[in-house]
Amino acid sequence: MTAEIHRPAVPVTLDGTALTCEKVRDIARGSDPVAVTGAGLERARRARDAVRAAMARQPVYGRTTGVGANRSIRVRDGGHGLRLLRSHAGGAGPLLAAPLARAMLVVRLNQLAAGGSGVDPALLPVLAEVLTRGLIPPVRTVGAIGTGDLGALASTALCLIGERPWLGGLGDTLPPFALDPSDALAFMSSNAATIGEGALAAADLGDLVAVTPVLAALAFLVVRGSGEPYADAAQRARPHRGQAEVAAQMRILLDGQDVQAARIQDPYGYRALPQVHGPAVDAVRALNEVLDAELNAAAENPLIDADGGQVLHNGNFYTAYLGLALDAARMAVFQTAALSAARLGTLVEPAMTGLRPFLASSVPASSGVLALEYVAHSALADIRRLASPATLGTAVLSRGLEDLADFSTQAARAATDTVAAYRIVLACELVAAIRGLRLRRLVPAPGPLRDAYEVAAPVLDTRIADRPLDADIDAAEGVLATLAQV
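User: That's the sequence. What structure does it adopt?
Assistant: Structure tokens below.
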């Protein structure tokens, strides 16, 4: 018998230019080794050379001066950078979940590879090793307002230099890294934690938005809906991009299905699906476009322009684009989640399905899936609460110098919670739709909808008798990401 050969996994590479939300998710929730490309290291080296040259001829914020309201105070002792890290490492609340902390590290490493910070390029492979070993910095959840994740990154820097212990990880921890004190602000000058959390939420929302028409089409078969609202002519008459895409997806899913429309006009859950779900498709697309820029940006202040040999004091740290995109996505998701709950309402209504109330068994007064409506509307209430725009808040800090804040950090945190609630709403619809199809003894015709049914049906309990449905909801949640690929 030949011994099995275990080959190390191929590293996931970061180059400062091509990071996506899906790649952030893969690394943050995975265990593959991480590496930085030579091009990313070269950009970091050139920025390092440029900032050293600039420091010899001019003041550079945070390197030769204090920060915030102390910007005009020159510093010459080598202890300033360490004091900066220690003073900014405060936070409150529970520790950031490990995937979110890893997402922060992925984003910051990629940003440094974009070549605008001027930090020692030797730091980049160290961060890659931190990710590879699964080390987690002890970062608190409360402390940022969208103008820089200073506390989170200061805490990370204290781990890098050996002043704070890492959490988790495999094997021995890393030896302390000799961080140049003048690099302290350059390392902290980022919204990496906020961007990382936003990226995870965007990737997850993308899956849930993609799977929603699939669930709607399954429910459509149960209630014998009308396909007229999805007609190409109807979409051309009001040509919004997302709306047209959703209608086209419904036409594909319903193509070949034997459906005799039961009524002249359906409730909004079916009739207005393109008009309600389309904005969510567009909003999540817009969020991804903003994040594509943020993930690969050199957004430090000051920015080191290696090509021009300049140090540019700027406002790229201000994340209004991200905060507004996150707010818009959450509001759009509320609308389509409400429509999912409305479709669930049709599935428990005999006038819509021709089946027993609540898709129940033949035992008199059985409750069937009645509880699903309560669960879905509880989750929907959370989505509604979380949809409140975070960017309507502001703050004036640092003795009036920092006179606006966008609270994109809170917008990203709300997006994380919205993902969890939206997933529950959709899972409730899926459980009811599959049960309805079984009660009608209907299996979708061959095609994408049949594929979706054959993925979902085997993981959902076939019993119709009244029983707890929590395991059904859990199973449905677990299969949504797979259904999103249909």
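The chain has a mean pLDDT of 94.
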